[in-house]
Structure to design on (488 residues):
C-alpha cells in the first residue's frame, strides 16, 4: 500500500499540474482584460541585472511575462529593482529575495534565452509550486499530530491540495511560501522542537504581515507551560525560564516585521526635512504598512461595508461561512474552556496544558507520523469513557463530552487564530480577499474533513457541496485571475 505521506505529495503535485494546465488553457482561449503585463520600464536605480537586447526565444519570453498579473507584477518588480515606490512596501521581501537568488544562480543560464524578467517569473512559479507540495506534506503531518486520526488528516490534506484559493498557490504570490513556513513551524512547535520552529515562523513574518500572528502559538504554549510549572510542579525558577524563553521566541517572530518597517522608515523618512516627508513619518508610531493599506487600498474598519461591495461579500460568503461554522461548532463543545484560554476544562485530562503543551515529549516522526502509543491509549480511554457515560446523558451532553479529534483542546490555539483572521477579513480588509487570506487556516480543512466523514451530522450532500465549492472556485479563479479579471 502506498504510504500516506507519499500519497499526499502525489495529490499536491497533480493539483498543481491541474491548476497550471488550466492557466495555460484559459490564457490560450481568451484575451486578457489588461495587456500591460509585458511592459517593463527600466529600474530607477539602474543597478538591476540587465536583459540582453535580444533573446533566443522571444515567444516563450512573452508568454511567461504575460502571465505576470495582479500582485505578481509587484513581486517581480521588487525582485528586479528593489523597493522603488512607497506602495511597494506593502509586499514583504522574503519571496522577492528568493526570486532574485534563484534567477541569478541556478536559472542564470536561461537569461540570454528568455530574458531576466521571464527568468524571475519562472523562478516564482518553481518556488511557489514546490513550496505548495511541501506545505501539503507538513499540513498532513501537523494534522496527524493534532487530530491523531490518519484518515481524517489525509482527507483534510487532499482538501488543502484542491482548496478554493488554488490559483494563488500556483502563481507568484506569497500564499504557498507562507503556508509552508506556517505549517512547518507549527508542526515542529507541536512536536516539541521549540527552537527549530522559531526559524520558519519568523520567516513567515518576513513573507506576509499576518505572519506575526504566529507568535500567538508561542504565547499560548508559554502560558500553559508556565501555569503547569507553577501550580503543579511548584518550580518557580523553571517557570521564569519558560516565560523568558517564550517571550524571546515571540520577539523573534516579530523582528522581521519590525525590521522591515524600520527599513522603510530609513529609506523614505530618514534624513529628510519634515515638510518633505509623508504623514506617516511624523506619526508617534511610524508604521508604513498600516499607512499603505489605508491610503492606497482603502483598508480600514468597516470601510468596505458599502452597497456596491455586495458582490464581493457574496464571493467571500462560502469561506466566511465555513470559518464561522468551524469556530461555532468547536465553541459549543466547551465555551468556558474557550473563554478561559484553555484553563476552563472540566478535568485535567481535557486541559490543553496536560493534553498538548506539558507532556514534554517529541512526537514520533515516522513517514505516516502515527500518534504515539501513549496518545492512542489516552484517546481510547476517552472514547471508552464517552461510550459508558452516554447511556446516562442526553445526546447533546454526550456529544459535548467528546474531547478528541476536532473537539480536542489541542485545536484551541488554531481556533483563536482563525477567529481573529476571519474577523479581520470581514470587518477590516477587502472582504473578497478572504478566500485566499483564510486558505492557510487548518481548522477549515479539519472541520470540512469531519463533515465529509459524516461527523457533526454531516452527510454525503455536505461532501458534494464542499467539493463543488472548491472545484467552481478553482475553475473560476484560474479563468478570471490568469486573464487579469478581478477574482479575490
Amino acid at each position: 500500500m502506498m504510504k500516506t505521506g507519499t500519497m499526499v505529495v502525489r495529490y499536491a503535485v497533480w493539483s498543481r499540474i491541474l491548476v497550471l494546465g488550466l492557466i495555460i488553457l484559459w490564457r490560450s482561449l481568451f484575451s486578457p482584460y489588461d495587456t500591460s503585463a509585458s511592459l517593463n520600464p527600466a529600474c530607477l536605480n539602474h543597478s538591476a541585472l540587465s536583459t540582453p537586447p535580444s533573446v533566443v526565444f522571444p515567444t516563450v519570453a512573452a508568454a511567461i511575462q504575460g502571465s505576470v498579473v495582479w500582485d505578481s507584477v509587484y513581486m517581480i518588480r521588487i525582485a528586479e529593482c528593489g523597493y522603488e515606490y512607497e506602495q511597494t512596501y506593502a509586499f514583504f521581501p522574503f519571496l522577492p529575495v528568493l526570486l532574485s537568488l534563484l534567477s541569478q544562480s541556478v536559472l542564470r543560464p536561461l537569461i540570454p534565452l528568455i530574458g531576466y524578467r521571464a527568468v524571475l517569473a519562472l523562478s516564482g512559479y518553481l518556488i511557489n509550486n514546490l513550496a505548495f507540495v511541501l506545505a501539503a506534506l507538513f499540513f498532513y503531518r501537523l494534522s496527524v499530530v493534532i487530530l491523531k486520526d490518519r484518515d481524517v488528516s489525509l482527507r483534510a490534506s487532499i482538501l488543502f491540495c484542491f482548496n478554493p484559493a488554488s490559483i494563488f498557490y500556483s502563481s507568484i504570490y506569497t500564499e504557498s511560501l507562507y503556508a509552508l513556513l506556517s505549517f512547518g513551524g507549527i508542526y515542529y512547535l507541536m512536536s516539541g522542537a521549540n527552537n527549530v520552529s522559531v526559524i520558519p515562523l519568523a520567516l513567515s513574518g518576513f513573507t506576509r504581515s499576518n505572519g506575526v500572528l504566529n507568535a500567538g502559538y508561542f504565547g499560548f504554549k508559554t502560558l500553559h507551560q508556565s501555569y503547569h510549572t507553577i501550580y503543579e510542579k511548584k518550580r518557580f525558577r523553571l517557570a521564569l525560564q519558560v516565560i523568558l524563553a517564550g517571550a524571546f521566541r515571540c520577539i523573534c517572530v516579530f523582528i522581521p516585521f519590525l525590521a522591515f518597517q524600520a527599513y522603510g522608515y530609513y529609506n523614505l523618512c530618514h534624513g529628510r526635512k519634515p515638510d518633505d516627508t509623508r504623514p506617516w513619518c511624523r506619526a508617534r508610531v511610524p508604521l508604513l504598512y498600516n499607512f499603505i493599506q489605508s491610503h492606497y487600498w482603502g483598508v480600514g474598519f468597516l470601510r468596505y461595508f458599502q452597497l456596491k461591495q455586495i458582490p464581493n461579500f457574496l464571493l467571500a460568503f462560502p469561506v466566511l461561512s465555513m470559518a464561522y461554522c468551524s469556530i461555532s461548532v468547536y465553541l459549543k463543545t466547551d465555551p468556558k474552556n474557550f473563554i478561559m484560554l484553555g484553563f476552563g476544562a472540566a478535568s485535567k485530562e481535557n486541559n490543553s496544558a496536560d493534553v498538548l503543551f506539558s507532556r514534554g515529549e517529541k512526537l514520533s516522526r515516522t513517514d505516516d507520523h502515527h500518534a504515539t502509543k501513549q496518545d492512542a491509549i489516552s484517546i481510547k480511554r476517552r472514547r471508552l469513557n464517552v461510550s459508558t457515560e452516554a447511556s446516562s446523558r442526553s445526546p447533546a451532553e454526550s456529544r459535548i463530552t467528546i474531547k478528541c479529534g476536532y473537539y480536542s483542546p489541542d485545536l484551541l490555539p488554531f481556533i483563536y487564530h482563525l477567529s481573529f483572521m476571519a474577523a479581520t477579513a470581514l470587518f477590516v480588509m477587502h472582504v473578497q480577499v478572504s478566500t485566499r487570506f483564510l486558505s492557510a487556516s487548518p481548522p477549515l480543512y479539519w472541520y470540512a474533513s469531519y463533515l465529509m466523514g459524516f461527523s457533526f451530522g454531516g452527510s454525503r450532500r455536505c461532501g458534494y457541496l464542499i467539493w463543488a465549492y472548491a472545484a467552481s472556485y478553482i475553475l473560476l479563479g484560474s479563468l478570471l485571475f490568469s486573464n487579469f479579471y478581478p477574482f479575490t
Observations:
- The two ends are 39 Å apart (CA to CA).
- Residues 346-350, 358-402 have pLDDT under 50 and may be disordered.
- Residues 236-268 form the longest helix (33 residues).
- Residues 161 and 474 are 11 Å apart (CA to CA).
